[in-house]
Design a protein that fits this description.
5% strand; two-stranded antiparallel sheet; single chain; globular; mainly alpha; 382 residues
Length: 382
Amino acid sequence: MDHKVKNFKYILIAFTFLLAIFGIIMVKEASGIWAEYIYQDKNYFFKRQLIFVSLGVFAFLIGYYISPFFLYKFSNIFLLISILLLGLVLIPGVGIVRNGSRSWFGVGGFGIQPSEIFKISLLIWTAKYFYKNYQKTEKLMTLVLPLIVVGIGFFLIMMEPDFGTALVTLMAFIMMVFITKMKMRYFVIMGSALVFGFSLLILSAPYRFTRIISFLDPFKDPLGSGFQMIQSLYSIGPSGIAGIGFGNSIQKNFYLPEPQTDFIFAIIVEEFGLIGGIIILICYGLLFYYGYKYALSFNTFSCFLKVGLLNVIMMQTLINLCVVVGLLPVTGITLPLISYGGSSLVITLFSLGIIAQKGDYDEIYTISKQHSRTHLSLFRNR
């Protein structure tokens, strides 16, 4: 690996931890009043975020040093375990209900979302599948098995229900298919099927339909379904070029519900203004730019995996930002690295560790039963 490519990795790591550190600061700033009111401890969310980031750093190091061959070899097992967890969380008494969704396991006062584990397990398995079948990916039949696997996961996540995570998982999979040899007409077919399917899902659940109506006209129900969107726009609207100053947010004072989670970007813009918002966007943009540059310097399995993981993080970022500024209905998706979060933050840092993975080569053992021989393939980075 040449020096220029290594620089891509170091820039990626730098922006990863820059955003995570800024996230700690903003969680403390945005959550103090809510934490004091609910838990009588203004640093409640701040202290937990420190724990989550610490666990995330550990997860990042695991992802950074783990062997690509280990991920490749055990991808089927990871996928099966994650699907099993998605099923278990739906059982009353096993899964915990939060905000109307049974999507959590409670472990010692903390919550673990199996859907986050499924996302990364699916991408590891899909990267292996597309690597092994790359020459066949121009045929539609090659997509049958991955679509079945994605469909099972999507169905189980929707049963929780968690529409936002299900959407991100599906979109990340489709974006990974783009780097195969699949013909464009098949994407048109899949896209049409998805639009039709999502329309049915929205119409079949009254609360989803209500969110769409609130998105189109939040002032139609300003104290109900449109309240969160309106308060987010009130945060951003009057902020001006430089904002009202760090620590001076008005909307965090019980106007914007749980401002440390989905809508933390609204607080950032309120306090730091248009300039602060643009700086955050630039940081994310550079993280993704150098992340993709680094990922595409690899061959085969690692390239598929790194690109897939970046797709997930980028999709979450774009959806969250679009929700905050009123371009999409509320989904419940947090802002990666900055929002308060447990399993989502840890999994994001683990994913970024894999993307920045150490090592100058991929060692993937391909077992071929053709002619009863075992072949060893060693793919070095470009």
